[in-house]
Description:
The chain is 30% helix and 29% strand. The relative contact order is 0.09. The two termini are 19 Å apart. Strands 8-9-10-11-12-13-15-14 form an 8-stranded mixed β-sheet, sandwiched between helices. The protein has a 7-stranded mixed β-sheet with strand order 1-2-3-4-5-7-6, with helices on both faces. A hairpin with a 7-residue loop joins strand 6 and strand 7 (175-182). It contains 12 helices and 15 strands.
Amino acid sequence: MDLSIRVIRADEWERTREIRLAALRDPVAHLAFLDTYEAAVARPDEFWRDRAAAASDSGDGKVRQFVAETTDGRWVGTVSVLVERAGAELTFGPVPKADQTHIVGVYVRPEVRGTGAVDALFRAALEWSWALPEPVERARLYVHEDNARAAAFYERFGFTASGVRVPVPGHDRAMEVEYEVGRPTVRHGEYALRAIRSDEWERVRELRLAALRDPVAALAFVESYEEAAARPDAFWQERAEGGSEDRGTWIRQFVAEAADGRWVGTVTVLVERPEDGRTLFGDVVTVPQTDVVGVYVRPEARGGGLVDALLRVAVEWSWARPAPLVERVRLFVHEENERAAAVYRRFGFVATGGRADTLGSGEPRDLEHELRRPV
Length: 375
């Protein structure tokens, strides 16, 4: 099933209400939710307006609600994430000892169960959690002790029981079991590999300008240092937002970060779908794919396999995209840039025979290489 995962908008309060009521009519709602259908359906419109506004992409950032949406605009699943800071009093559970997020309101309609929709929603929730400007140390959720099916899913996704158990409100003996997953750290030697955040636009600009000053920049990038340096702050702010983990959807920029916080490498991935028509490079998209661009490692960090590590993160992110599944990852290499071509071949990319004029030279001198989705 072709689904997109996105954050709700503030004006979608009626749709927020509808899917919540559908969730509360589910046969296992009494195990999954602390709310009831009768209580929810009696709430006034103002309650749902406030709820949607707070959890929307224009909210204050303390909560986000994600939905799985079909191509015809129907919502078939949802999950919400609450930001909980250390020491804060909570409506449910003990006072947190560390900054965390709390995943709640998980629901997918019966007709899309088993399609990977809930996995895609969880990935979005966790990506948003790890991308918060003020980092959190873990994500947590509660599972009713009798809801073995939900517990099995969360364990498959990497959550483990923390040992915390709290009584279900209104019940004498029933317990909710806390599950948690710690903040992941993808590392290559001394470097941490992660997606950028939307507020890091100045660092995005600095690294891009460094890349464009490289001696082989004329063969590797579609713009010049002079063009990039002249661009206004608004350009870089928009660029960082589009490629970030907390705001972006179809683009992701990853960086290699040293222990002192300095960025020493980067790669960007663009999602390209057949319905998008033509790509940035002018060719027609025939299958769901991603395009790897902007590969750069500072001279002092070269030779240690960091390019391979960045490519691995980019490719893994591509394969993990929700349906429609990405069928291939591709990139272009200038015909004179044999050193880069050798790196990509070693990684598993193969030349397709396709060509493009990515540099605007008037001649198609850039050779397409691809990596097909593993069976």
